[in-house]
């Protein structure tokens, strides 16, 4: 019989040998099944020079159609193509769902990004202020230009205002691109860049050089130092990356590909005569995160040999275990998303479970502070969304404080590292609620889309599948499939989030002790479990 | 064949095909001008059907509460509503006058029934939702406005193809990296 430590040693050596075999196979020219560029059709598709262009043009035509319709719309706002397109069909079904499964691939085909990219060719050459080059600005842009603006104007329910909004976004994109070098608008000012960056970290796809893949082990010399070094800026400005020496010193804990090391032109980064380099100013050879990779494949187009940059499949959420330069702004973004999409009914839950009349009291009191807003706006936005963000951040800070006291590691490091685990709560709730649950309305969207191209028909909103059908009954309460879809998958957040917390605790404590890691991560595991249970309550009980 | 010749031929073909079909379609409509009806209602019926559903649901509730006065008022309102006007216009345009007539008859019956005719009332209300479903089934069959479809397809596909062909050439001609 093997004892426990032998078993653990066996498992470790097995894992190591698997990882070594991945590297050896790639070195020996054997096909790695997780490298999608080993499949000819996929490689040809992404390496084609027409790859983002075809989609970009198609989407620019769509966007132009939406704007023209929005400005001259005679129909009601519920029948409008622009409100349906911008804030429903594209928003949830295409942009965010693709974000979860394929990183920021939307950014490579985004029509606003394409227009900004075209304008950027004629830029005045100014550098964007270094102080603003962080995730704080994107977060501000997301909250102000979407949620605060919606609170004041309700623009996403009005076709005319939606058209004006998207025209303004395009205008700002062109203006910023004409002034500054690089894709500053896409990086820091796009209204949705902040959530896209954070969610893309959980995606099972990545564009990396052969040795930087998330699946491979980090080199032992740098393994223990990676997270010890806390750098607050996630996206490094051009000036820091122009010299080769500098980029070689920035370590992700992985070895740079030999071919990239010996490369003297760095075309993937700088571009060459024919093809531009990485438009996001990331050096592909050292890139280890999805947050600022739009998967535009420019690096594969411009690399002279075209070999080192690959499209890999990896385990979902695996990047969260090895975030290079964890950043507290990203944690703010994660809790903003949780507040806006998952936890906005917190006061109703409190009212239902503990304090009768709490919700109404809170709304009326808050309305006294914001008398210029309507009661509905105060209830939905201030008490619902914005207070939920504050509450979530407060609870998280508290559990980080406890965790840092237990581990003896600085609060800032604790706060920045563990925040990523809460992404699992958001994704497991959001994914089905807003994407598959969207099928409930697909008939309505099909009616609008088809009527605009001359095909007139009426399909019931849930003509594909009706999730409102009762699944079972508990006492007098009827639980529908809709309730189950919204309330059950979130359970996965507990094991997955818990595991990620445990792994992060193990890494930041630099200890092999399972118990120590469990104790350090326990405040976060408890908070994740509590949040998950409350969201389940919200979806299964409050929705009935 | 040279690639650029092929592209030019393709674009020309699409233009010729599109415009011929368009002209043919307009002419056919003009020839049959007497038969052709002017569509002066919104053919997208989402709001209209929602309004109708709301009325029918309301009538159901009023029937369970035995509120016959409210049923009579709502029944009259259905027939006067702009939503029903658009739905009936669309159904008549598609040649389904029987369904419209059946619906009008049922609603008219509701306006005339007295509280003593509870059974007839129930029967008519059930009929109402049955006819509503029939109407929705009829409307779920697509009716294609070929003229609009062709115009949109031709314009957007032309812009698309021209852009795909032109942008790389303009970029390489002006030495703009892409």
- Please report the number of helical segments of chain B: 7
Oligomer: heterodimer
Mean pLDDT across all residues of chain B, rounded? Answer: 81
Radius of gyration of chain B: 26 Å
Termini separation of chain A: 53 Å
Kindly state the number of beta strands of chain B: 1
Structural class of chain B: mainly alpha
The most extensive interface between chains reads: A-B, 35 and 34 residues
How many strands, which pairing sense, and closed or not: the largest β-sheet of chain B? none
How much of the sequence lies in strands of chain A comes to: under 5%
The proportion of residues forming helix of chain B, as a percent range, comes to over 70%
Major β-sheet strand ordering of chain A: 1-2
Give the overall average pLDDT of chain A. 83
Could you give the order of the helices and strands of chain B?
Answer: HHHHHHEH
User: How far apart lie the N and C ends of chain B?
Assistant: 26 Å
What's the gyration radius of chain A in Å? Answer: 24 Å
Residue windows where pLDDT falls under 50 for at least 5 positions of chain A = 219-251
Helix percent band of chain A: 55-70%
- Relative strand content of chain B: under 5%
What does this 3D model show about the protein?
Chain A is mainly alpha-helical and about 550 residues long. Helix content of chain A is about 60%, strand content about 5%. Chain A has helices spanning about 5-25, 40-45, 50-70, 80-100, 105-110, 110-120, 135-155, 160-180, 185-190, 195-200, 220-225, 240, 245-250, 260, 265-270, 300, 330-340, 345-355, 360-370, 375-405, 410-420, 425-435, 440-450, 480-485, 495-510, 515-540, and strands spanning about 205-210, 310-315, 455, 470-475, 475-480. In chain A, a hairpin with a 2-residue loop joins strand 4 (about 470-475) and strand 5 (about 475-480). In chain A, helix 4 (about 80-100) crosses helix 22, helix 4 crosses helix 23 (about 440-450) and helix 24 runs antiparallel to helix 26. The longest helix of chain A has about 35 residues, at about 375-405. Residues about 220-250 of chain A have low confidence and may be disordered. Helix content of chain B is about 80%, strand content about 0%. Chain B has seven helices and one strand. The two termini of chain B are about 25 Å apart. The interface of A and B includes residues 61, 75, 275 and 448 of A. Strand 3 of chain A pairs antiparallel with strand 1 of chain B.
């Amino acid at each position: 019989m093997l004892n426990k430590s032998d078993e653990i040693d066996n498992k470790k050596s097995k894992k190591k040998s698997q990882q070594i075999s991945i590297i050896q196979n790639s070195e020996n020219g054997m096909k790695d099944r997780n490298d999608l560029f080993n499949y000819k059709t996929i490689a040809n598709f992404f390496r084609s020079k027409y790859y983002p262009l075809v989609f970009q043009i198609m989407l620019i035509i769509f966007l132009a159609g939406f704007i023209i319709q929005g400005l001259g719309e005679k129909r009601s706002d519920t029948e409008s193509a622009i409100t349906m397109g911008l804030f429903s069909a594209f928003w949830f079904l295409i942009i965010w769902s693709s974000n979860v499964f394929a990183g920021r691939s939307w950014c490579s085909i985004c029509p606003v990004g394409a227009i900004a990219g075209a304008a950027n060719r004629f830029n005045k050459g100014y550098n964007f202020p270094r102080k603003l080059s962080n995730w704080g600005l994107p977060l501000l842009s997301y909250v102000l230009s979407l949620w605060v603006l919606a609170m004041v104007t309700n623009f996403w329910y009005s076709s005319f205002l939606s058209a004006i909004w998207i025209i303004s976004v395009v205008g700002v994109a062109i203006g910023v691109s004409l002034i500054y070098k690089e894709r500053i608008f896409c990086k820091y000012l796009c209204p949705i860049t902040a959530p896209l960056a954070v969610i893309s970290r959980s995606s099972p796809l990545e564009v990396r050089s052969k040795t930087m893949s998330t699946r491979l082990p980090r080199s032992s010399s740098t393994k223990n130092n990676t997270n010890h070094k806390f750098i607050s800026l996630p996206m490094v400005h051009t000036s820091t990356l122009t010299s080769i020496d500098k980029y070689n010193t920035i370590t992700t804990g992985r070895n740079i590909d030999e071919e990239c090391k010996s490369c003297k032109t760095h075309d993937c980064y700088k571009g060459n005569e024919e093809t531009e380099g990485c438009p996001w100013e990331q050096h592909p050879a050292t890139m280890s995160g999805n947050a600022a990779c739009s998967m535009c494949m420019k690096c594969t187009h411009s690399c002279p040999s075209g070999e080192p940059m690959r499209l890999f499949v990896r385990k979902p959420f695996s990047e969260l275990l090895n975030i290079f330069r964890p950043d507290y702004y990203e944690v703010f973004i994660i809790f903003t998303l949780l507040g806006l999409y998952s936890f906005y009914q917190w006061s109703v839950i409190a009212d239902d479970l503990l304090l009768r009349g709490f919700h109404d009291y809170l709304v009326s009191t808050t309305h006294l502070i914001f008398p210029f807003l309507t009661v509905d706006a105060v209830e939905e936005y201030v008490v619902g969304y914005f207070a939920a963000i504050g509450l979530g951040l407060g609870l998280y800070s508290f559990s980080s404080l406890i965790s840092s006291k237990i581990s003896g590691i600085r609060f800032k490091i604790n706060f920045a590292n563990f925040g990523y685990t809460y992404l699992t709560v958001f994704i497991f709730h959001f994914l089905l609620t807003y994407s598959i649950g969207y099928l409930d309305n697909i008939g309505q969207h099909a009616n609008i889309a088809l009527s605009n191209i001359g095909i007139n028909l009426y399909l019931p909103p849930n003509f594909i599948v009706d999730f409102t059908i009762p699944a079972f009954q508990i006492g007098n309460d009827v639980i529908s499939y809709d309730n189950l879809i919204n309330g059950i998958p979130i359970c996965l957040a507990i094991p997955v989030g818990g595991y990620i917390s445990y792994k992060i605790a193990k890494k930041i404590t630099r200890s092999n002790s399972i118990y120590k890691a469990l104790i350090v991560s326990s405040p976060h595991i408890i908070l994740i479990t509590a949040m998950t249970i409350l969201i389940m309550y919200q979806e299964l009980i409050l929705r009935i | 064949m040279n690639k650029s010749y092929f592209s030019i031929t393709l674009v020309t073909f699409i233009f010729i095909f599109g415009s011929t079909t368009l002209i043919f379609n307009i002419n056919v409509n003009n020839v049959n001008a007497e038969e052709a009806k002017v569509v002066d209602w919104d053919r997208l019926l989402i709001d209209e059907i929602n309004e109708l559903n709301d009325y029918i649901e309301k009538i159901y509730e009023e029937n369970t509460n035995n509120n016959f006065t409210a049923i009579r008022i709502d029944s009259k309102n259905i027939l006067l509503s702009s939503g029903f006007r658009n739905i009936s216009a669309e159904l008549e345009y598609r040649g389904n006058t029987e369904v419209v007539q059946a619906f009008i008859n049922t609603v008219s019956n509701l306006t005339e029934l007295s509280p003593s005719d509870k059974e007839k009332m129930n029967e008519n209300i059930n009929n109402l939702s049955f006819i509503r479903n029939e109407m929705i089934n009829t409307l779920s069959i697509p009716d294609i406005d070929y003229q609009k479809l062709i115009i949109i397809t031709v314009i957007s596909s032309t812009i698309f193809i021209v852009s795909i062909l032109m942008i790389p050439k303009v970029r390489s001609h002006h030495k703009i990296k892409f």
